[in-house]
């Protein structure tokens, strides 16, 4: 018998022996006395926890402790040790970031860069793997098919029977498929790389040419639709301006296009009622819409950039504003001519690049141009002297030169000549004003001399009669040389003193300055 059991028997107390073995009886508990120091001991708590784990999971094999950093083998009470551990961890993260940057920058390039000199931890001290790179930080997309490998600079890969040159059909086909990704975004190419599509050079070149032509055509259509006034049509912005005029009652209705030119489109409209009583709108109006494309104005900026009235506002950096300035210039020139009594359209209103004027004609039929009408000898002679008088008025009273005067810009209506299209008209003080005047005189003189007007002067005589200058030159070359000398003198004076020359001296003396 166990001596422990014998010793414990008297403590059980009186009673039958079967009571101590009854499974439904109260268990005998023995109290073990321990001190407070034993209860607060961490070693005792670990031993008790280990006993419970062993009793619950007896089959689990204990893992051998490795060289982990724990509180038992590292003295964490030292601030220096903690700082070194944190610095080591920071250096490892910094080196990992450098490796990600290297792979992101290098990509598939043949020439690579390295940040080896900027690393903090030596390779044998680093626990990070070189392959642990986040794909989101690189240009590689795991869901995208890899592009075909490039052929080395030597032009071939492989050896012997397995040699493959850069002219291989399969290699070229895959390269052409990859190059299609450089086409415009509007050109749908599909996933040719994923399907392992192989395009021949002939097919690729045809697709490339078609993609470029479609891109250019799309740009042209966009320019026409958004920014330009097409022939016999208007863009949305111009249409909105016309709608506002009709809704305001200024115009009754717009009937249609009556003329098209290089720089404008002219529409016919019936006038309405004016908002103010002092302004009368004619029963028939002509709406001149200046084209908002810049193609026709590339070579015509010389008429406005050197005009002293608009020189300060002219800007090469805002070319579209030149078109509005062009319309404003025609409005001012027509107002000057109207005040001088020269037959010309009457200005009604100007809205941006839309100029509304009185209509020269009747019942939607415009007056014919001087080149299209057949006049008698008396009417032709009458028209010549009228034009001569208008050119003198235009030069002396309006201080303008038409700069594009010909039979194409003169209308015959009600037995007299009407001047139109004065958007390019400049002042005589323009650096090329006298040259423009001489060109107008040549056009007028040649037209009426061909028309049989015996009294028609030649271009040099007509120039002196209009300008009042008495330039005596035997031939046309010397005549134009003197004109250029006068223009140079005027330009130098204006630039130095900001004053304009008066070209209206009647004698042969040099021009005098206006103080």
UniProtKB/TrEMBL annotation:
Residues 136-147 have a biased composition (Basic and acidic residues). The lineage of its organism: Eukaryota, Metazoa, Chordata, Craniata, Vertebrata. The keyword rRNA processing does not apply. It catalyses: L-seryl-[protein] + ATP = O-phospho-L-seryl-[protein] + ADP + H(+); L-threonyl-[protein] + ATP = O-phospho-L-threonyl-[protein] + ADP + H(+). The gene is Riok3. Residues 223-468 form the RIO kinase domain. It holds the Pfam family RIO1. One of its GO terms (molecular function) is metal ion binding. One of its GO terms (biological process) is innate immune response. Keywords: Antiviral defense, ATP-binding, Cytoplasm, Immunity, Innate immunity, Kinase, Magnesium, Metal-binding, Nucleotide-binding, Phosphoprotein, Ribosome biogenesis, Serine/threonine-protein kinase, Transferase. Its cofactor is Mg(2+). Gene3D superfamilies: Phosphorylase Kinase, domain 1 (3.30.200.20), Transferase(Phosphotransferase) domain 1 (1.10.510.10). Interacts with CASP10. Interacts with IRF3; RIOK3 probably mediates the interaction of TBK1 with IRF3. Associated with 40S pre-ribosomal particles. Its EC number is 2.7.11.1. InterPro entries: Kinase-like_dom_sf (IPR011009), RIO-type_Ser/Thr_kinase (IPR051272), RIO_dom (IPR018934), RIO_kinase (IPR000687), RIO_kinase_CS (IPR018935), Ser/Thr_kinase_Rio3 (IPR017406). The keyword Cell membrane does not apply. GO terms for cellular component: cytoplasm. This is Serine/threonine-protein kinase RIO3.
């Amino acid at each position: 018998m166990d001596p422990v059991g014998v010793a414990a028997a008297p403590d059980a107390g009186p009673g039958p022996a079967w009571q101590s073995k009854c499974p439904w009886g109260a268990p005998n508990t023995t109290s073990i006395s321990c001190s407070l120091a034993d209860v607060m001991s961490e070693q005792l708590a670990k031993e008790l926890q280990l006993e419970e784990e062993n009793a619950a999971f007896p089959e689990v094999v204990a893992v051998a402790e490795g060289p982990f950093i724990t509180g038992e083998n590292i003295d964490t009470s030292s601030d220096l040790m903690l700082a070194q551990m944190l610095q080591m961890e920071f250096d490892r993260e910094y080196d990992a970031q450098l490796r990600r940057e290297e792979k992101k920058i290098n990509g598939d390039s043949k020439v690579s860069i390295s940040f080896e000199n900027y690393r903090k931890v030596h390779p044998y001290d680093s626990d990070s793997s070189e392959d642990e790179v986040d794909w989101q930080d690189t240009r590689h997309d795991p869901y995208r098919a890899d592009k075909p490998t490039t052929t080395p600079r030597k032009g071939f890969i492989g050896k012997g029977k397995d040699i493959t040159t850069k002219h291989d059909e399969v290699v070229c086909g895959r390269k052409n498929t990859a190059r299609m990704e450089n086409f415009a975004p509007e050109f749908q190419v599909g996933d040719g790389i994923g399907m392992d599509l192989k395009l021949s050079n002939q097919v690729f070149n045809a697709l490339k040419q078609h993609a470029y032509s479609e891109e250019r055509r799309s740009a042209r259509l966009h320019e026409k639709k958004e920014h330009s006034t097409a022939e016999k049509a208007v863009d949305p912005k111009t249409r909105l301006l016309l709608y506002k005029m009709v809704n305001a009652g200024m115009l009754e209705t717009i009937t249609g296009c009556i003329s098209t030119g290089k720089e404008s489109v002219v529409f016919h409209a019936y006038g309405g009622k004016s908002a103010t009583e002092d302004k009368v709108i004619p029963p028939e109006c002509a709406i001149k819409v200046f084209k908002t494309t810049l193609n026709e104005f590339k070579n015509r900026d010389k008429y406005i950039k050197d005009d002293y009235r608009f020189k300060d506002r002219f800007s090469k950096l805002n070319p579209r504003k030149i078109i509005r300035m062009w319309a404003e210039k025609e409005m001012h020139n027509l107002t000057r001519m109207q005040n001088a009594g020269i037959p010309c359209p009457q200005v009604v209103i100007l809205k941006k690049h839309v100029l509304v004027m009185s209509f020269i004609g009747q019942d939607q039929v415009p007056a014919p141009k001087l080149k299209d009408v057949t006049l008698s000898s008396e009417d032709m002679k009458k028209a010549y002297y009228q034009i001569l008088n208008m050119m003198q008025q235009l030069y002396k009273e309006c201080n303008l030169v038409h700069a594009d005067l010909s039979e194409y810009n003169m209308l015959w209506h009600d037995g007299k000549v009407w001047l139109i299209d004065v958007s390019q008209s400049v002042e005589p003080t323009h650096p090329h004003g006298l040259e423009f005047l001489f060109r107008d005189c040549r056009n007028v003189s040649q037209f009426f001399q061909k028309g049989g007007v015996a009294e028609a002067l030649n271009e040099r005589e007509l120039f002196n009669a209009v300008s009042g200058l008495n330039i005596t030159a035997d031939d046309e070359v010397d005549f134009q040389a003197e004109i250029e000398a006068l223009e140079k003198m005027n330009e130098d004076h204006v630039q130095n003193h900001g004053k304009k020359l008066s070209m209206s001296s009647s004698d042969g003396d040099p021009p005098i300055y206006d103080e």
